[in-house]
Amino acid sequence: MGLIEFVMKYVILNIISRCKGFFMSLNDIYNLPASEKLHLIEQLWDRLDDTDVVSPDWHKEVLDERRKRYENGEVKTISLEEFKKQR
Question: Residue 18: what pLDDT?
């Protein structure tokens, strides 16, 4: 198990234990019905705030470059309806 996976599992289990008032093992989580897993994900997502997740600087650089290309007319865009027709 890598460090990131270990930390994420620890954080998830810690939040679950505080939210539910008891401790669940990873196997307990894996065995939940899909609807309960989605509910758990929603609870975790709702508890995130802007200080919890920090994007690396290169994300902003990529977005800035893409916006510049879009504003300069260097990229072709299509509507959602056109995209759906192509699928």
Answer: 62
